[in-house]
């Protein structure tokens, strides 16, 4: 064998060895890549499940807060309605007492309304009386 043929055989052997090593790296890298992809899928699935559970938890908290807010609003509305009803009842009684000629001091004491409020109610009653009288006069004519 000539030197050239020996060199060519050596180079071919080196190339074959290098190719073999390259294939091992590629195969190993491919295995690592597959394992890494499986790992990532597992991690992302776990994170997705965790995220989904967190969302459910937030949704539950939001719904609970919403229900509590509605209940609180309903209770406040009832309390306000009750207070308004009581106020209307007191005013109705005060008007009737004013119509019957009770003294303002006595009405103030029993209703808790201020003197100013009672005077305004008295004016309101008298203005209705005046308007009713005028209306009745017009009808008679």
Sequence-ordered SSE layout with sheet pairings:
Elements: H1 3-99, H2 104-111, H3 115-140
Query: How much beta, percentage-wise?
Result: under 5%
The secondary structure category is mainly alpha
The ordered string of helix (H) and strand (E) elements is: HHH
User: What is the molecular shape?
Assistant: rod-shaped
Radius of gyration: 48 Å
Q: Can you tell me the residue ranges where pLDDT is under 50 for at least 5 consecutive residues?
A: none
- Average pLDDT reading: 79
Q: How many separate helices?
A: 3
The largest sheet, given as strand count, sense and whether it forms a barrel, is: none
Distance between the termini: 149 Å
Q: Please give the number of β-strands.
A: 0
Name a few traits of the molecule.
single chain; 141 residues; mainly alpha; 3 helices; 0% strand
Question: How would you characterize this protein structure?
Answer:
- With 141 residues, the chain is mostly helical.
- It is 93% helix and 0% strand.
- α1 crosses α3.
- The model has no long low-confidence stretch (mean pLDDT 79).
